[in-house]
Design a protein that fits this description.
single chain; about 130 residues; alpha/beta; Rossmann fold; 5-stranded parallel sheet; 5 strands; about 20% strand
């Protein structure tokens, strides 16, 4: 069990599926996270230009800019280069030449998502403000 932090970690959920975003958002909100949402890769990049999240939950299969390209764009930006990303996908991604911070198969359980995010956030060198 994780101790409640003084500040709720901010998580950005990026998924073109409105229902999926809402479900994951409710799960994470109840688990102690502050949740923001974006419906596309471009929306995610616009969001992180204004507010830097502590972690990002990113769907791989999105129209336009998919999760892999969004991830590459996030890694090119100094402000988001080290922000942990949990990639969600309904397909096998281990063959791709990209090192994700974490990969979860959709649909993942609430426990899997929550534990993965806490594990990634606990590895960060210092709290973000």
């Amino acid at each position: 069990m994780h101790q409640s932090p003084k500040r709720r970690p901010r998580v950005l959920i990026v998924d073109d599926d409105d229902d999926g975003r809402e479900i994951y958002g409710c799960i994470l909100d109840r688990a102690g996270f502050s949740v923001d949402q974006a419906g596309s890769g471009a929306g995610a990049l616009a969001h992180v230009a204004r507010t830097r999240p502590d972690a990002i939950v990113l769907d791989y299969q999105m129209p336009g800019m998919n999760g892999a390209e969004t991830w590459r764009q996030l890694r090119r930006r100094a402000a988001t280069r080290r922000v942990p990303v949990v990639m969600l996908s309904g397909t096998e991604l281990t063959a791709l030449p990209v090192t994700w911070d974490a990969l979860l198969e959709k649909p993942c359980t609430a426990e899997e998502l929550i534990e993965t995010l806490w594990r990634l956030l606990e590895r960060l060198p210092s709290p973000r403000v």
